[in-house]
Design goal:
By secondary structure, the protein is mainly β. Helices cover 0% and strands 42% of the residues. The protein is built from no helices and 15 strands. The strands form 4 sheets. Strands 1-4-7-12 form a 4-stranded parallel sheet, with no helix packed on it. It is globular.
Length: 132
């Protein structure tokens, strides 16, 4: 991979501020696990082999961990994209917000998987299972 992927720990948050590019090698998985929130403000892509992306917020399962992806490019070259979290509803882990915001926000995000699956599990209210 090239670039300077940066994340900072602020009470369990991850923020991607620099582009991440997979330029060599076989298929791979890049996993982001945050006790609270994940924010993606830079492109993530693969030019060699499939790149599966796994974003998991709220890994401590305390009912608050959103995933926000800005106006960036997510290009997996055949890999899958999974956005989910630790707020359990009917046996499935959802990304959630503890202040009535969306659990998952894609704001101008361009997604190209080349045939890979895109799966999103998000909820607005971690205490109301009817909000998925």
């Amino acid at each position: 991979m090239t670039g300077n992927p940066t994340s900072h720990s602020n009470e369990g948050n991850i923020t991607v501020k620099s582009a991440i590019v997979k330029t060599a090698g076989n298929d791979a998985t890049l996993t982001f696990k945050a006790a609270q929130n994940i924010v993606v403000d830079a492109d993530i892509k693969s030019t060699a082999g499939a790149l599966n992306l796994d974003f998991q917020s709220d890994t401590d399962s305390h009912g608050g961990g959103y995933i926000k992806v800005g106006a960036v490019n997510l290009e997996t070259n055949g890999g899958s994209i999974l956005l989910h979290g630790g707020t359990m509803v009917d046996g499935v882990g959802f990304a959630s917000s503890d202040n009535a915001e969306a659990g998952i926000e894609l704001n101008g995000t361009q997604v190209k998987t080349g045939g890979g699956d895109v799966t999103l599990y998000g909820t607005t209210s971690p205490t109301n299972s009817s909000w998925h």
